[in-house]
Design brief:
alpha+beta, rod-shaped
């Protein structure tokens, strides 16, 4: 850019100097010829005239240099610098760096270019903002779609389990009841401690099979329609008193923060089953030691029941499958993987939701949301 301005300034200066010389050549030559005729040969005037004629090329060259420097200064100030700043702005816009500052004094030659760049910058910023909003909307829609897909898959699994339960309930339930009856009779008639131990183990495993079948029936059972006002605080206190008598809760602290007079449109039976399942899971996650906090509050016309524990929390790889039927992280023989699946089904059957997350201070947090009254 600078060398181009120098070239233009030199060209303009050469043209100006040449035009000046062409314009003044005839008068100067006539004047010098008259002076030479008037001055005697060898006189001081003649010598001064000779020196003046000899210095004309030097003066013309000096004039050319001075004009070139002045032309470069004027062109660089009025055109070169604004053009360089405008070029930087265009490069920034080309890199989509829209937070640019245009030259405040571009000069009269570049004012229209500056206005055009300003309009283009504003249009690009508006387009970028629109694009960002569309990207955020697409992300939100994608998240909703993924959530809907997950819920659809979960519902399909629950429906499959329900159909399976409907098919095997009668075929398995009645034989199990007969087996349990005969085991009870055999245990009452024998006095052999070793045989009683074997019968007790068989009874325990049969009870576990019966629990699995009952869990399947709960999942396959249609949603209850006879819902009414339920005092949530009273149900929570009843469930806590019931489980506190168990051996697993002997070293567990129970903390209650229940809003008084809080009613939900629910069924006390399924709600009690949900609470007991959550309490049992919390105690098993803490390995029988720690604190379980239960709190209730109204939120946006709904009732919110929160159960928190001080355990290790829910691993990230477990969270997506937490409510799947038969999925469990417990040791074999210690759980069926139906507790949370059944609880979710019961909550949705009452028009509510059951969600899980990790509490900020550590431990797991389960939230039951039901319609309020």
């Amino acid at each position: 850019m600078k060398w181009r301005i120098v070239s233009v300034a030199f060209l303009l200066s050469a043209m100006g100097t040449g035009l000046t010389w062409l314009t003044l050549q005839r008068p100067l030559l006539a004047l010098m010829e008259a002076a030479r005729q008037c001055a005697a040969q060898g006189s001081p005037g003649s010598l001064a005239l000779a020196r003046t004629v000899g210095s004309l090329p030097f003066l013309l060259g000096l004039d050319l240099v001075l004009l070139t420097l002045m032309g470069y200064a004027v062109l660089d100030f009025m055109v070169g610098r604004p053009l360089r700043r405008t070029e930087d702005v265009v490069e920034q816009l080309g890199r989509l760096e829209l937070d640019v500052s245009l030259p405040e004094s571009p000069g009269p030659l570049l004012s229209r270019i500056q206005r055009a760049l300003s309009r283009m910058t504003m249009a690009l910023q508006a387009e970028q903002l629109t694009t960002q909003q569309q990207v955020e909307a697409l992300r939100a829609a994608n998240a909703r779609l993924a959530l809907a897909q997950t819920e659809l898959v979960s519902s399909e699994r629950l429906a499959t389990v329900g159909r399976l339960a409907a098919g095997v309930a009668h075929e398995v339930g009645n034989p199990l009841a007969g087996i349990l009856g005969y085991l009870s009779l055999a245990g009452a008639r024998t006095k052999d401690p070793e045989l009683q131990e074997y019968l007790g183990r068989i009874d325990h495993e049969v009870q576990r099979i019966d629990g699995i079948v009952r869990g399947l029936l709960e999942i396959g059972r249609p949603a209850r329609e006879r819902l009414g006002p339920v005092d949530v605080g009273h149900v929570v206190e009843t469930c806590v008193q019931l489980v506190k008598a168990g051996r697993d809760f002997s070293q567990v602290r129970m903390s209650l923060a229940l809003a008084p007079g809080l009613f939900a449109r629910a069924d006390s039976g399924p709600l009690s089953q949900i609470i007991i399942n959550l309490l049992l899971n919390a105690v098993q996650a803490m390995e029988g030691q720690g604190e379980v906090r239960l709190s209730t509050r109204g939120e946006g016309g709904d009732m919110l029941l929160v159960v928190e524990d001080t355990g290790p929390g829910i691993p990230a790889e477990v969270m997506p499958r937490l409510f799947e039927p038969f999925f469990t992280t417990k040791e074999p023989g210690q759980g069926t993987g139906l507790g949370l699946a059944v609880s979710l089904h019961l909550a949705e059957g009452m028009g509510g939701r059951l969600t899980a997350e990790n509490a900020p201070g550590g431990g797991a947090r389960f939230s039951v949301r039901l319609p309020g009254i």
